[in-house]
Amino acid sequence: YVPPQVRRAQETLDDKKREELGRLKKMVNGLINRLSEPNLSSISGQLEELYMANSRKDMNETLTDILMNACVTPVAMPARLMMEHVLLVSILHHNVGIEVGAHFLEAVVKKFDEVCKCDAEGKECENLLALIAHLYNFHVVHCLLIFDILKKLVSIFTEKEIELILFLLKNVGFSLRKDDALALKELITEAQRKANTAEKKLQDQTRVRFMLETMLALKNNDMRKIPGYDPEPVEKLRKLQRTLVHSSSGKETQLRVSLDSLLRADQVGRWWIVGSSWSGAPMITDANSKTQQKVHVGKVSSKIMELARKQRMNTDIRRSIFCVLMTCEDFMDAFEKLLR
């Protein structure tokens, strides 16, 4: 039973919170709408101030929603506009904290997985993939995630996936080669094998041949072979990024997280965000593991147990390991007892 006055207080609190969030959304929306390369510095500064004045959770959710609405459209987004939006996320990721980039990345990857599965007609898939590619370009995420996505696309290998592979390689191919040439080589080998074993209808098409040629050009570091490849805009914005990022942390803030971890974040927790609390750990609630932890190492003298207590061996398993090490005959005996 909730008394009426408490209920009223809760309702007014909820209304107040909703009003605050609405005001915050308007402010962030206004800043994002005005976003362009010349005023990136002032807008990122204003957003940093908003991060200091409001709760991180509210800011992350608001910013992610607004950016997703702006960038994930059924029509193809202009590349330059996309880069500027991602560069803003990158600057906040480096200056405010890695949870900013992590929250945005998780939302983008989950949406990408969802859109890919439902086989939508529009350009949402390409737009989401461009967001992930530029998050890698601006050092928010490690190449591990990009390779995971490429492996997944190569394993499916239909016409839509071939388009997406080409799109991704054109955007980040040479950076991938610089970061992990061996993984790229393995991916190219796998794609060639897949193209050879693919159905005849795919083999006849020039798109597959073009994709393999693009991969070969990447392997040989030949930029001229890739039509429309222009690294200039990304380089220009990277220079701007270096001037706007306060900390000299550089690549240490890159999120080294795999595709599987991001998609299963609700089940396995967000280990890549420092200090993110999570209560669903199966190893904590599992009753069996508690019973298994009780290790019996025969009878040990009270003197050894007293020593263990003095050394603050405060769990059964720690006491058992301590007793084994103190009472064993030789290394083989210790090894056998520890295994048991």
UniProtKB/TrEMBL annotation:
Keywords assigned: Coiled coil, Nucleus
GO cellular component, one term: nucleolus
Protein name: Nucleolar MIF4G domain-containing protein 1
PANTHER family: CELL CYCLE CONTROL PROTEIN CWF22-RELATED (PTHR18034), NUCLEOLAR MIF4G DOMAIN-CONTAINING PROTEIN 1 (PTHR18034:SF4)
Places the protein is found: Nucleus, Nucleolus
Stretch forming the signal peptide: none
Chain's role: Plays a role in targeting PPP1CA to the nucleolus.
Residues forming coiled coils: 181-208
Organism: Centropus unirufus
Matches recorded under InterPro entries: ARM-type_fold, CWC22_splicing_factor, MIF4G-like_typ-3
Annotated ranges, domain MIF4G: 25-222
Family: Belongs to the CWC22 family.
